[in-house]
Design goal:
Layout: E1 3-7, E2 11-14, H1 22-30, E3 35-38, H2 49-61, E4 70-76, H3 83-91, E5 96-99, H4 119-128, E6 131-134, H5 148-163, E7 169-171, H6 177-185, E8 190-194, H7 196-200, H8 204-207, H9 224-236, E9 241-243, H10 252-255, H11 270-280, H12 287-299, E10 307-316, E11 321-322, E12 328-329, E13 337-342
Parallel strand pairs: 2-3, 3-4, 4-5, 5-6, 6-7, 7-8, 8-9
Antiparallel strand pairs: 1-10, 10-13, 11-12
Length: about 350
């Protein structure tokens, strides 16, 4: 197949950041996605409806002229989050709240410690119809970084899902066969997003021949057996898995230093790379469900009415992009060839 037309997709997990970054990140996503779930881990984090609406306004101001792109806003859960915060967020149009275990990823120092203490908040979310988005890793320093997702399932995720059977839960950016199996064995109120990097790469691509900082993300890349498990579930066409890039930009100097930031800025190539994966797997007919239908259906939102066409045509991801303040960002797959291109 040399061309495929699909319903315009959405990105169900990404990071726009703020300030000068928005002039780069919002247009990069709006070029091919109609909507996106926007992560709230700013500094300071988006912890209430007022901050969510203010952030949404800044994102809308950064849209390209004539774009109808819509950001879908989320709340950042802390141990101070109240049930009233959830009620206010729902009334303000916020669609979900994000659970970061404290210290799990970028800008998560103010996040949750003692997850069970948030059960009253989860109860209110279940009542209000606000989705729970989970970064599923334990953060204890003695736990091997490659095991943190699996242990989180056993210690927390299974218990949350059991305690709140009507709460819609998205297991974000899953990386392991255990996470895929957990979602598959769960009821229809549990789903997962999968990133392009976790479908394309494994930990060899991070570590062999020297550390590659622009492939470093959290949760970290895992063994090839886990990568193959993720490729298998997207190829299956299961409605419990959908597109979430976790596109996460950092300035080049912040990635290429002695303590590089976690995150892959994939907005420049994500949809094309997903298409490449589905082509490699021989299941291009499953791409539209994964990219355009499953997420919208799970969130209870209408599917998009417009279309987008991709053609099998090679192009090269730029080595870097420059922000208005002069800082450079290195996009995911920089300098590499992608087999599919948006027409």
């Amino acid at each position: 197949m040399q061309q495929i037309t699909i319903t315009t997709p959405d990105d169900w997990h990404l990071h726009f950041r703020d300030g000068d970054m928005l002039g780069e990140t919002v247009p990069a996503t709006a070029r091919c996605f109609a909507r996106a779930i926007v992560m709230p881990n700013l500094v300071p984090p988006v912890v209430n409806a007022k901050l969510a609406n203010e952030y949404k306004g800044r994102i809308l101001a950064a849209r390209p002229q004539g774009s109808n792109f819509q950001p879908l806003m989320t709340l950042y859960l802390t141990n101070q989050t109240s049930t009233q915060d959830i009620i206010d967020a729902k009334q303000a149009g916020v669609v979900a709240a994000k659970l970061y275990p404290a210290g799990a990823t970028t800008n998560s120092a103010q996040a949750v410690s003692g997850i069970e203490a948030l059960y009253p908040v989860f109860e209110e979310m279940q009542k209000q119809g606000l989705l729970l988005l989970v970064h599923g890793e334990v953060t204890e320093s003695h736990v091997d970084i490659f095991d943190r997702e699996k242990i989180f399932i056993d210690q927390y995720m299974a218990k949350i899902v059991q305690a709140f059977p009507e709460l819609k839960v998205v297991f974000e950016h899953i990386t392991t066969s255990e996470a895929a199996d957990f979602v598959l064995s769960s009821a229809n109120n549990v789903a997962a997003t999968i990133t392009p990097q976790h479908l394309l790469l494994n930990r060899n691509d991070l570590l062999v021949g020297g550390v590659k900082p622009h492939n470093y993300c959290l949760p970290v890349l895992k063994r090839s057996t886990h990568q193959q498990a993720l490729r298998k579930v997207v190829a299956s066409g299961s409605k419990q898995f959908f597109l979430g890039t976790d596109s996460a930009p950092h300035a080049k100097h912040a990635k290429e230093n002695a303590c590089g930031c976690a995150g892959c800025y994939s907005a420049w190539s994500a949809l094309e790379l997903y298409t490449q994966v589905f082509d490699e797997l021989g299941v291009l007919d499953k791409l539209e469900g994964f990219a355009s239908f499953h997420g919208a259906d799970f969130y209870g939102l209408p599917r998009n009415s417009s279309n987008l066409t991709l053609v099998k045509q090679s192009w090269t991801v730029p080595d870097s992009v420059t922000l208005p303040n002069g800082e450079a960002i290195v996009p995911f797959f920089a300098g590499q060839t992608v087999d599919w291109k948006i027409a």
